[in-house]
Amino acid sequence: MPRSLDEARAMARERFKTRLSNGEKVGECACHDDQAAPSAGAIAAAGPGAAVVGVRFRDSGQTFYFDARGLVIDLGDWVVVGTARGQEAVRVVIAPHQVALSQLDGELGPVERVLDAAEVERMAELRQESAGAVRRFGAELRQRRLPMKPISADYSFDGSVLTLSYSAPARPEIRGLAQDLSRVFGTTVDLQMVGPRDEARLLGGLGRCGRTLCCSSWLPVYPEISMGMAKTQDLALNPTKVSGVCGRLLCCLSYENEQYKQMKAVLPRLGQRIETPAGTAMVVSLQVVREIVTVRVLDSGQEITFSGADLGVDSPAYIPASILAGGAPTQTASPRPVPDTRPAPVAAPAGEPGLAPRRKRRKRRRGGGGERTGGEG
């Protein structure tokens, strides 16, 4: 038995890794329903190219797939693959026996080889030298008085290429800068201009929630974000309050946006009159994610909190597709609204006294100070 919560979590992580490396079913996913995961013996009998590996680059959280070519590759190994930027070292996050080649479409690039322990150690040394390369890069920019901000430096696995990332308000004139930096660092230098989001991803940091930035820790791709998502989630529409360290809208606005849309399609609106177990009431507060509605009873003025189930709100899992696409909720999807029973205003008959219409006040002119030449008759 675990002696602490941390020890229990560590044991759970080890069990998960063991099951994942053995190709066993994890959770209630449907990936094993169509066909069982191929065993290591079946893959070896099928020959080279029978399975693929899932890898991740050091500067990206997205998973890419390459042909294993029958190489002996384990989870967590560093391998060399060919890319548009040349050969790069990537880390294996999905073992070869977990994804069959027949499950993927398109032609896959091959895994060149597996890095040995000495090469992995050399990569760690180059990573430590990257901080000094950034400082040297910044000194060279200040010496040339270029309007560029150094962001990061990344050596290739063998140290043959140094990628220097920078940001600038406009694309600067850097003709001949790469050749000069190559002589300074003694290796091939590749200059790469990045935007605000990539700058935050490369530098890292803490977000408004106090946790590590999503883009620098796990987020594979940048989602599409709009101010409408903040409005859907009843957040402040001030851009400074819903922006991240990059100055752009928070990526986390897209995480729960679909859930808010589904719940708002079935919950009553603020200010709406509905029938409740306590009588006719008006909605004064909503907790969308928790499905909690606070109403004020019209007869007594008392505020009562109800759950969505108490008000007859259906589960969002059964919302029609038309509602999810932006249509109006059906009559059964939300509590029955109460019609406004107040009498409509009736115009006074001709000849009877009524309220006289207000006369518009004429604004006084300010300044000038001169006398009018023409008087009013």
Write the topology of this structure:
Layout (H helix, E strand, L loop, with lengths): L4 H17 L18 H7 L5 E5 L7 E4 L10 E6 L2 E9 L16 E4 L2 H28 L4 E7 L5 E7 L9 H9 L2 E6 L2 H8 L10 H4 L9 H6 L24 H10 L6 E4 L2 E9 L4 E6 L5 E5 L13 H4 L53
Parallel strand pairs: 7-8
Antiparallel strand pairs: 1-2, 1-4, 3-4, 3-5, 6-7, 9-10, 10-11, 11-12
Overall number of strands: 12
Q: Helix-strand pattern, N to C?
A: HHEEEEEHEEHEHHHHEEEEH
- Which percent range describes the beta-strand content? 15-25%
Structural class designation: alpha+beta
Query: How many distinct helices?
Result: 9
Based on the model shown, name its key terms.
377 residues; alpha+beta; GMP Synthetase, Chain A, domain 3; 5 domains; five-stranded antiparallel sheet; four-stranded antiparallel sheet; extended
